[in-house]
Amino acid sequence: MSHAASLLIVEDEPKIARLMTDYLTTHGFEVTTLGHGDEVIPWLEQHSPALVLLDIMLPGKDGLTLSREIRQQWPAIAIIMVTAKVEEVDRLLGLELGADDYICKPFSPREVVARVKAVLRRSQAAADAPAEVQNAPVVLNEDGWQALAHGQDLGLTAVEFQLLRVMMQAPGRIFSREQLMDHMYRDNRIVSERTVDSHIKKLRKKIHEALPELEIIRSVYGVGYKYQPEG
Questions:
Q1: 85: which DSSP letter?
Q2: A GO CC term (predicted)?
Q3: From CA 156, how far away is CA 173, in angstroms rounded?
Q4: I need a labelling partner for 9 at 20 to 30 A (CA). Which of 44, 103, 139, 165 fits?
């Protein structure tokens, strides 16, 4: 990760925006702040930040709508949702719409810096990952967060893409639900084993619709799941 990575903070509370800006600038980031949701897309059309810290409750266009639009138009930009809402469904919804992580208010500035660095490390690792799946039934486009089957975009959510990517990095390896959670959500605060099963079910359905003759995500009873492209 470059210490000069550019960040956009979208936060309508000036005190919070200023606090985050001060800490992130101190840690070497270039920071821009916006306070209104309607300003975000026009700004992104002129700039290319590495990451957006995006408050959910904003005047104008709300954070969840913006997250969806950013992921569709600029898939390489990392997104961290910032929310005062603690309901599990809201946090899951933010991640489903393409966010890479979330932070709940009130938070410490140190937590913000740590989350930003962690998300950018994961983004860089994904960009640097070797392309070892060119002949596989499903090919990952890391830059665009797409999974392609015979050139057809499977339309995966960010969570589904991360699940598939983890398993494809180790074909044949059985991942427990807990291991999959550890790879995707290091804080383990929002995801249950049942949630992992739900995401796997949706992922398998999308793959089956494109590749009905193959079962490449397999359940191992009582253990977990594995990616098995052959046999």
A1: -
A2: cytosol
A3: 22
A4: 165
DSSP class per residue in 123-165 = HHHHHHS----TTSSEEEETTTTEEEETTEE----HHHHHHHH
pLDDT average per 10 residues of sequence, the chain (231 residues): 77 95 95 97 94 94 90 84 71 64 87 90 62 65 79 83 87 86 62 81 92 90 86 54
Classify residue 224 as left (phi > 0), alpha (psi -120 to 50) or beta: left
Assigned token pair, 85: 């809402």
- Which tokens in the block code for residue 213? 């003759």
User: What's the rounded Cα separation, in Å, for the pair 171 and 167?
Assistant: 6
**Alpha carbons 52 and 78: distance in angstroms, whole number:** 6
Given the structure tokens 């995500």, which residue do they identify? 217
- Domains, the chain, in order of start with CATH, read 6-125 (3.40.50.2300), 138-227 (1.10.10.10)
CA distance linking residue 128 with residue 22, whole number of Å: 30
Would the CA dihedral through 112, 81, 161, 77 be positive or negative?
negative
Locus of tokens 């719409």: 97
Give the dihedral of Cα atoms 44, 52, 38, 18; nearest 10 deg: -120
